[in-house]
Amino acid sequence: MKHYLEFEKPVAELENKIEELRHLSGDDELNIAEEVARLQAKAERQLKTVYAKLTPWQKCQVARHPERPHVKEYIAKLIEDFTSLAGDRLYAEDQAIVGGIGRFGGRTVVVMGQEKGNDTNSRVAHNFGMARPEGYRKAQRLMHLAQRFQVPVITFVDTAGAYPGVGAEERGQAEAIARCMDVSLQLEVPVVAVVVGEGGSGGAIALATADEVLMLEHSIYSVISPEGCASILWRSSEQAQDAAEALKLTAQDLKNLAIIDRIVPEPLGGAHRGREETIKAVGQAVEEALGRLEGRSGETLRAARRQKFLDMGKKGLS
Length: 318
Known about the structure:
CATH class of the largest domain: Alpha Beta
Order of helices and strands: HHHHEEEHHEHHEHEEHHHEHH
Strand content: 15-25%
Number of helices: 14
Number of strands: 8
CATH architecture of the largest domain: Alpha-Beta Complex
Oligomer: single chain
């Protein structure tokens, strides 16, 4: 059964009607087929209308849709001969961040990303994509591996944020995130990041300190969730819609602010309506990004990446 968002109700009614008609049979099959075709065309028009004017808050809902492709699916479809690597060699294995080494487009790469899980058991196992310090230290280990063997790094970002538990803070959550960013800034190999769902807070930027940052059309990337922002500013999460507007967290806003480099289009109705198509589009975008970066010297890559992040925030200030 499809999961419909609140603003998709007009489309849901039409698609449910189509399913009902498809289960009918009898002497009137020709008329039923014509009615199904008419309703399908109407549903597609309605979907185009709805998705052409999504608000930032609605984009948050699309970015969090449980049926969007998750990191493991991207890795399974895009990375050949993938070998998962576990543990931070300091404390423990953190399943919120999955990563390892494999082949992408004929080249060896190190790949990693936050995995949210797709059912109750896997979501609990992956801690809903919210990494603890050991997850970010595992990411650092993988980055060092990429540097040692001079292979590109590909990251997939999909997290509400780093895990805020007491134990995580006791083990140095902030330091682990900051060190992850520092290691990424020092790499002398190409780094490409893709925000495929939620890009929340430092938990996202720990894996998105890259030469090129790509975002799916309906993904979000922000310093805090709209609910968290509203709770701080208005003492109530009910103002989340206003916070979403103010945060400028959509791919379109961030492209205008030069925070990200490219928007990857999603199928009509969002990535959850065209999983294979979305994954293929992301793979093509990453391939093109790596093509632009390969051939540059390590020092050139590092210097440009550092300057890229130093320049953020200057747009519109001069």
